[in-house]
Write a structure and sequence with these properties.
The chain is an all-alpha fold. It is 60% helix and 0% strand. It is built from four helices and no strands. It is elongated.
Amino acid sequence: MKITIEIDCTPEEARSFMGLPDVSAANNVYVENLTAAMRGVSDPGQLQQYASALAPMGQVGLKLFQNFVEGGMKMAAGGAGGSSKKSAD
């Protein structure tokens, strides 16, 4: 027997229902600081050093950040076709 339950709610409603804390304010501060630090940085080496200092999830977080930066650099260079290759880490 298989039973499927579908719940239609927002992420905020799900978080509240499960008793998880609202971390949106902390996330906003983190994103603002990251954005401010990235302004004016054009050298990939600087970005990698900054990512290594942040790396909230260790190597996995660093790899995700590197993929994000590489994709942004490709888009900035005019490679609108971007790669959709996914790696299995």
